[in-house]
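Quick log. Single chain, no ligands specified.
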Amino acid sequence: MKILWVKSDFLHPTTKGGQIRTLEMVKVLKRRHEIHYVGFEDPAQPEGVARSVEYCHRAYPIRHYVPDKASLAFTAQVLKGLFSPIPAAIYRYESEDMKKTVDRLINTERFDRVVCDFLIPSINISRMDRALLFQHNVESIIWQRRAEHGGGSLARLFLQLQTERMFQYEDRVCREAGHVVAVSPIDAKLMRNLFGLTRLSSIPTGVDIDYFSPLQTPRQMTDLVFVGSMDWLPNVDGVLYFVREILPVIRRKRPDCSIAIVGRTPPPEVIELARDPNILVTGTVADVRPFLWGAHASIVPLRIGGGTRLKIYESMAAGTPAISTTIGAEGLEISSPDNIRIADSPADFAEQCLELLGDGAAREAMAANARDFVTRRFSWDRIASRFEEILEQSPGTR
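-> predicted structure:
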């Protein structure tokens, strides 16, 4: 097949879960299909376009300025969001150049399939009925959870307004799409119930088993580790929740408990946590594996989220036991307590951490179970083959 893949960014540096999922999928698909890729280029990250040869046959970089969240331009976009019927998280990526490029390519290149990767690029695709929508999240649910955990009254009102607009937009685009692919059966069920979808499939999340293969003698770095982009609100909320409400309970019995918070672009409130000598905030790292290998357990204390958390399967593949909230492990095919521990209150989460930190045999048994589980079921080759089957069965562009 000749496939046009449309996304809001390029895939390097690969720092976000959605980028990892897409990168691993298109690398496999490129072996058997002709991939053309349209995305916004970041002049500050030239490797994005330069390394696109790893996963596509031809790339079409589009210049588009997306304001930083600390800038006045972003504030202006938020104010505009009070009056626009389109959610701010979508319209800030609207681009006439991308619209024209996508239309031109569809009309001249005779693609067999068009993939809209995430909801965001849909604003630049005029005929979603001819596209497959790859939904890494149910965005309306994420915004609803953001509103539930919002700050002051004004912030919560804004988040509630954006939640309503996101639902209206997501509902319309999902109904228009030729086919929708979710990243878990739970997300598929949510979209079926929320939007009344019938042209809907799901694929599981995968992991690079060989890349994360554990070291025989890793260097111990911290007791616990959290891995996730720190410019993603659910991760920031989860880290602050853990440090403020769970860690103090752990430290009543383990006063020197240490944690590494690993992820790019930490905001000031996360950087401030490093004033504690037993909390390491790394910012961007070239390789997350040493931090996974060097911790007794990884934590996923998320209260907000959607889609699936690749970080859990990566932790399992790395041989590091994982402790998560129900929301943190939502959509994953896991089994507690065999290959993960699930806890939702601060007291229960702390208890699970203390149990694994204090019992080396339990850690080793759980780590072995978890790695065997993901090795047998969640290689990217297997996941990409399932996506390929869905593409072949979905509506074409001709």
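DSSP finds 15 helices and 13 strands in the chain.
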